[in-house]
Amino acid sequence: MAVERVASAGVSFELTEEQKMLQKMAREFTASEIIPVAAEYDEHAKFPEDIFHKARELGIVNMNIPEAYGGIGATVLEEAIVAEEVGYGCTGIGTSINTNSLGDLPIILAGNEQQKQYWLGERLIEQGQFVSYGVTEAAAGSNVAGIQTRAEKKNGHYVINGSKTFITNASHAHFFTVFAKTDPGAGHRGMTCFIVDREMPGVSIGKKFNKLGQRASDTAEIVFENVEVPAENMVGREGEGFYLAMKVFDYSRPGVAAAAVGLLRRCLEECVKYAKEREAFGVPIYQHQAIGHKIADMAINYEAARLLTWQAAWQVHAGIANPKVPAYAKAFAADMAVKAANDAIQVYGGYGYMTEFPVEKLLRDSKIFSIYEGTSEIQRNIIVRELFK
């Protein structure tokens, strides 16, 4: 009887057959299209537009767009499954091909039917375009409410002035979801989201950044100089942009955590392979406790980070508003990815420091996970806020 009660409780960590097929497809795509070119794209900071379009044709780009607009309407968990597999191959390439699923979220969550039909259906699905997400500014990173970009209402449209920085895919994006202050005196209640077409007069792409890691992803500035945006390009209601941005993070953070999980798994598997082959003092190095325990910790942290990530993804799909769970996943997966990459170099020793071996790139790629989409410190602030409500 006790066993029957447990069996009927509905808790399962098993993926569905469709999810397993999706995982297999993403893993095979990563093995054939990403891993062989990852080092080259990293070295030359080459944007993976060709890989993006191959992934789009396969159905693992724009996954969150609902079926009504030509997408597959994937759940956040299904997006996380793909993000882990792609992140295993290269998180820089993964960031480039997955950014549409961040940039389109304001439209999915708060856009009207006309906006969804045109920007999601026609521009992203039919035309295969890029969209970037514009929140971060030079003086407003973690402090989203501190943005200075201004949108003034004039004669039935909005005039946007300001700039955004560290914007992924900015150099290639065809349009942007941009957050600006419509009422600077109202604090976080004065922020609004707009869709801004790249071809609008006054939009320009500024400095492209030369980065430590994830070099295959494009990161640049966007400048807005008296950009006239039609009122119908406002996403949601005026003054509700801050709340929309926070909701976007609940949906996007599990995917970022999943990419970190993929990198963590790559560290683990590279270390297992190397530690079986490399000998020191007459035995494979994994038999030395100092090395074996590092690899055991990677395995523990990989499993724990993936479980937290899946929980956060499931929660969003279930409609449960609990910001601390995505924060748990994002902070833990990010921090453990950095730790695993650092330990992987230690396992490899001097070889780990050389570009001929894969782990130095993993370390460079890992660090951004504890910074973007909310730093690890900000995640802890969210957790403290929720715990002490």
What does this structure look like?
It is a single chain. The protein has 389 residues and is of the alpha+beta class. It has three domains: 13-126, Butyryl-Coa Dehydrogenase, subunit A, domain 1 (Orthogonal Bundle); 131-239, Butyryl-CoA Dehydrogenase, subunit A, domain 2; 242-387, Up-down Bundle (Butyryl-CoA Dehydrogenase, subunit A, domain 3), CATH 1.20.140.10. It is built from 14 helices and ten strands. The chain has helices at residues 2-7, 17-34, 38-43, 49-58, 76-89, 91-98, 100-103, 105-110, 113-126, 241-277, 289-317, 324-348, 359-366, 376-387; strands spanning 131-134, 150-154, 157-168, 175-181, 191-197, 203-208, 219-230, 234-235, 279-280, 283-284. Strand 9 and strand 10 form a beta hairpin. Helix 10 packs parallel to helix 12, helix 10 runs antiparallel to helix 13 and helix 12 packs antiparallel against helix 14 (376-387). The protein is globular and about 80 Å long. The relative contact order is 0.11.
